[in-house]
Fold this sequence. Notes:
Blueprint: H1 2-10, E1 20-22, H2 27-33, H3 67-80, E2 85-87, H4 95-100, H5 105-128, E3 140-145, H6 148-151, H7 174-182, H8 190-205, H9 208-211, E4 216-222, H10 225-242, E5 253-257, H11 276-288, E6 300-304, H12 311-331, E7 339-344, E8 350-352, E9 357-359, H13 372-386, E10 389-394, H14 402-418
Helix pairs in contact: 3-5, 8-10, 10-11, 11-12, 12-13, 13-14
Amino acid sequence: MLDEYLRSRSGRQDSSTTPIAIIDGGLATRLETLGQDLSGSLWSAALLKDETLEGRPPRSRHEAPQGCAVIAQAHLDFLRAGAEVIGTCNYQTSLETFSRAGIADTEGRRLMLRAIDVAQSARKVACSTRAGRTHVPRPLIALSLGPYGASLSNGAEYTGCYPSPSDPSQEIAFDQLVEFHRNRLEEIAFDHLVEFHRNRLEVFAASAQHWSLIDLIAFETIPRLDEIRAIRSALSQVWQRHKDEGSWSKKPCLFSCVFPEEGLRLPFPQGRRSETLCECRDILEASFSQEKAGDWSGDAIGMNCTKPHLIPLLVDRFTQAMKERRARRAAATQPEDKKHLFLYPDGGKVWDGQARQWRAWAQPTEAGFANWAQQLLESAKSAIESGVWAGVWLGGCCNVGIDDIQALSLLVSREARSA
């Protein structure tokens, strides 16, 4: 799907060039800009409960859209700004998350699927305005799924500290998570991580209508190496369950990690002594290896919710690790298709999970992130020159808004014209 999209976008039928495509920015950021209060434990997903205005425009210019309608508006705003991929409002959604908010499983499933319907409605509107334009393929819908830590609604995805579900520290505040981890409280079991991701995936896999609308499954802000392996296991179990259904097929998968520390390493495992490059090798292996037939491997690797100034070095390290991986596999006569690279850093602020607000970062870069789009494009060009990636997809995460995506889209278009 990703290769096909980039070929249709460029009007070429070969892979002699590595295109750059644009994904959206921070959905929650845009929703807050549109006047939404997302301070609750469900974050953006709380808006899925209100379908009052779904399917109709505001009655007057003074009436602001609400609920599902404002989510659709945010998606459409990103598409009009140049985004070619929109992520559904599912980052924190899971049956466990909704259960903690007092929402029954049946209703939770309905809300999770509704997010796909909302994204599809925005895509339809965007496509209706593009009629007759050549080399402008239909935008892609990415099923946006956060890690287990996101379901805890306490910032755990930035620390990788996952207490056991039976441990009362599940509800602990963000600023105390690392200290609790140092005290070696009971860690979540690998099997529970697999179960969490399998159960959530099954909500979407069980609905043929909604599954058909998904172009990419984006597992985002992953802070742990073992969680990538757990997701892979969950995917393979879902595949085994549905593979004999005539209309059912695997979807491309993105594994996007978070690197919140200056050491450029996943926050978990703590205290591990290894170079960044070694960890990049491990991440690639966990994401793409296939030990047996039926394994559902990834199609793309990425980094999100990571400070912009860390992206260039991470791109260099992942590119070097990918070069080594491809050389090893070629020598063993086990070549694999090129993978895609997704880069969507945040806008430079730091999330305070206890106060539930964004704070200015204590160590801003020299440019103060004023050249956010240009810096990201330079990283993409560096990745392209390596020749090891099938495509590079650029966008943003938290605190990256419409103007940022529009600036990025214009830069990429200008770069393509001058090539």
